[in-house]
Design goal:
A hairpin with a 2-residue loop joins strand 4 and strand 5. The relative contact order is 0.17. This protein has eleven helices and 18 strands. The chain has a domain of about 80 residues: Dna Ligase, domain 1.
């Protein structure tokens, strides 16, 4: 059966939907589109009907384009209010031959969530980072290895319940189920970094519309995450203020002519103002100066967040996100951060857009889950595939239980988490 998944990323600036097929280590993109988001502010849903309408618009368009109804989506949510923990679970291997099975790994993962959470926290991802057997440790999934016991060190990601349930509720209201979920920062890293960087140390800067996320990875863990309240909006506002023009026109100029490359020629006039019969012309080079100064200011704020983890070493540093589309932004960031910085643009056909990094990373995240849990339900079944070939995701089969007053805010994803990581064996 083909592993075809739909990934939905709901952001403050755009809503993205990507449908793809995982083929070996590659992704065959079947559909990808983004539209402007209107109901999200600072990572929180402020207008539920608008968000639901936008999700439904993308789902319906993709379903029509592919000739099959999308019933499930994997969800990337903002990293706002996310917390990260390192935990572990130890279990006895039940096989008579002491061969580790997926059930042993799942049991250890369940045990790794046995620690106190804040009242408003909900676990959304439990990700194995290191496996310890009787005689050795390994990063690869040890299914089939011999050991009497198994210890799994895990990365546990949580989010605020109110934020999480809002996103799940929006997806459900749009008529689809949540297949799996994680935060943008982790999903982006799965696409933007090779495993070696995630082990040796890497910094991800996700430049959003009003906020940017800074995440630090080392030893396979997401070890640090922070928010900087700066983003693409600040650049638009700087243009509008400097040139005394409306925000919508400033945004248009930023998208159409924006660059931080000061070496660009100054012969291209892109805006003219007239005051007291005196005309003033603004060129693309003038715009580059404004944007370069704006990026410097943004990176100075981001630098204060990175300094928290500064130990004198130089880490692989990558800029992702829609706000990172600005040409030469990496050159300005390198100067301010005093470290080599590069922008990451996917080379996957059909999704060569920086705003799709998280969607592509989520596809790899799902593929990793397959290695532990077995087959996962596809988001849709294309016409040439028999419906009888649908196979349940082990431990993640969802029920149609009606909401009660205590659970109406808890969407299907919460039930999925409870099914997978409940402490019952």
């Amino acid at each position: 059966m083909k592993n075809i998944y739909a990934v939905l990323d709901i952001g403050s600036a755009t809503v993205k939907l990507l449908v793809g097929e995982v083929v070996s280590a590659n992704i065959n993109v079947l559909f990808a589109k983004k539209i402007t988001s209107h109901g999200i502010r600072k990572g929180q849903i402020e207008n539920m009907p608008v968000v639901v309408s936008e999700i439904k618009q993308l789902i319906d368009e993709a379903s029509k384009s592919l000739g099959a109804m999308i019933s499930k989506v994997a969800l990337c949510i903002p990293s706002f209010h996310a917390h990260i923990y390192q935990s572990d679970g130890i279990t006895k291997v039940n096989s008579p031959l002491d061969q580790i099975t997926s059930e042993d790994i799942v049991r250890a993962l369940k045990l790794s969530k046995r620690f106190a959470l804040k009242e408003d926290e909900e676990i959304i991802s439990v990700i194995p980072a290191m496996f310890y057997l009787d005689t050795k440790s390994m990063k690869d999934i040890p299914i089939g290895e011999k050991s009497a016991s198994l210890k799994v060190e895990s990365l546990v990601i949580t989010s605020r319940k109110k934020l999480l349930y809002g996103y799940i509720n929006a997806v459900e209201k749009a008529g689809v189920e949540v297949l799996d979920i994680t935060i943008n920062a982790y999903a982006c890293a799965k696409e933007a970094f090779d495993d070696v960087y995630l082990q040796e140390g890497a910094i991800l800067i996700d430049v959003g519309y009003r906020n940017s996320t800074i995440a630090f990875f080392e030893d396979g863990y997401l070890k640090y995450i922070a928010q900087a309240h700066v983003g693409g909006y600040d650049l638009t506002r700087k243009i509008a203020t400097s040139w005394q023009i409306p925000m919508d026109k400033a945004e248009l100029y930023k998208v159409k002519y924006g660059t931080c490359d000061l070496r660009i020629g100054d012969e291209d006039v892109i805006h003219t103002t007239s005051q007291n019969d005196v005309e003033k012309h603004f060129t693309q080079k003038d715009l580059a100066h404004v944007l370069s100064e704006g990026v410097q200011e943004i990176m100075e704020v981001i630098k204060t967040k990175i300094e928290v983890i500064n130990d004198g070493r130089s880490y692989e540093t990558v800029i992702v996100g829609g706000g990172g589309e600005l040409p030469a932004i990496d050159e300005v960031a390198t100067q301010v951060l005093n470290s080599a910085v590069r922008t990451y643009r996917p080379d996957t056909i059909g999704a060569r857009d920086m705003s799709f990094v998280s969607c592509l990373g989520m596809m790899y995240y799902l593929n990793d889950r397959l290695k532990i849990f077995g087959q996962i339900d596809s988001s849709l079944v294309l016409p040439d595939i028999s419906n009888t070939m649908s196979i349940r995701f082990k431990g993640l089969t969802k029920t149609k239980t009606a909401y009660s007053s205590d659970t109406k805010k808890k969407g299907k994803l919460t039930k999925v988490i409870e099914n997978l990581f409940s402490e019952e064996d």
